[in-house]
Specification:
Radius of gyration: 22 Å
Helix content: 40-55%
CATH class of the largest domain: Alpha Beta
Structural class: alpha/beta
Bound molecules: S-adenosylmethionine
Strand content: 5-15%
Distance between the termini: 35 Å
Strand order of the largest sheet: 3-2-1-4-5-7-6
Number of strands: 7
CATH topology of the largest domain: Rossmann fold
Low-confidence stretches: none
CATH architecture of the largest domain: 3-Layer(aba) Sandwich
Number of helices: 10
Mean pLDDT: 90
Length: 254
């Protein structure tokens, strides 16, 4: 059942399979009750309901259920506008540039707030120099803010999505030349070089990332996660952010 496990680790593939499996019963219904004469939109609505029920049965997150419910109806409505395929390609390209391989990483782009900078400075060393990396540094705002308020740090960022990387690189060149930003995959980076590793990702990579941190980071160094816990590992510190978002910073010492 190895293939089943690898499919379940790819939400995009699961989503595709759910839509395909939802198509079959509606097709059969249409064949058996040919007098039904479903319109294209009616078909799409029915398929949405079946797909949403399937994802509910599979205990998928609520937002997946909503996506499955609306996916086919939205596709049908969009097709009704008869837009030239070129615009879909442009839209796809734009999303790819902003989000990169989100279907693989399961980490979309959203940015740390100013409150995070404040909370982080209360965790960072004041008396000695330290190195800090933001894994998936997005548009580089957090690194720029931190470097301005905590100058005893050397700051590094790594980002995989092209457009956020470009923004952070430009920001870095213009406003904070001491920060080192690189384009790449943090799974291939060696975390041994950093005293503090910061991650604002999603629940998906946390368990594996913790294993990587424990294997590579030096004893005594800090691993900080914004919002997402490491399953089964109690943090040494928790800092609730005071911006009304309900977010928390979690800190583990290696
Ligand atoms: C939630 S955003 C956080 C942005 C930034 N760290 C901040 O706090 O403002 C997560 C970022 O991680 C990037 N990312 C996800 N997986 C990655 C990987 N394996 N290597 C590099 N960047 C990655 C995504 O492209 C996204 O821009």
């Amino acid at each position: 059942m190895c293939w089943l496990r690898s499919i379940s680790r790819s939400p995009a593939l699961v989503a595709l399979l759910i839509q395909v499996f939802s198509f079959v019963p509606i097709l059969l219904l249409n064949i058996v009750f040919s007098e039904l004469k479903l319109s294209m939109f009616g078909w799409a609505m029915l398929q949405g309901v079946v797909a949403a029920s399937l994802s509910f049965r599979l205990n998928m997150a609520t937002w997946w259920i909503v996506i499955h419910l609306l996916f086919m109806p939205i596709v049908t409505v969009t097709l009704a506008f008869s837009l030239p395929p070129f615009w879909f390609f442009i839209g796809f390209l734009f999303l790819l540039l902003i989000y990169g391989k989100v279907y693989q990483t399961q980490v979309p782009l959203y940015l740390s707030s100013q409150e995070v900078t404040k909370a982080l400075t209360s965790l960072l060393p004041n008396q000695r120099d330290f190195s800090f990396i933001d894994l998936g540094c997005g548009c580089g705002g957090l690194l720029k803010n931190l470097s301005q308020v905590q100058s005893n740090g050397s700051y590094y960022g790594i980002e995989a999505a092209p457009l956020p990387y470009l923004v952070s690189k430009l920001r870095n060149i213009v406003f904070a030349p001491s920060i080192q930003i690189k384009w790449g995959d943090f799974w291939k980076d060696d975390l041994a070089h950093y005293d503090v590793v910061y991650a604002y990702l999603s629940p998906a990579p946390m368990e594996l990332l913790w294993q990587k941190a424990c294997q590579e980071m030096q004893p005594g160094s800090m691993f900080i996660s914004n919002s997402f816990i490491i399953p089964g590992v109690l943090p040494e510190k928790r800092l609730e952010l005071e911006n009304g978002s309900g977010s928390t910073l979690y800190m583990w010492r290696i």
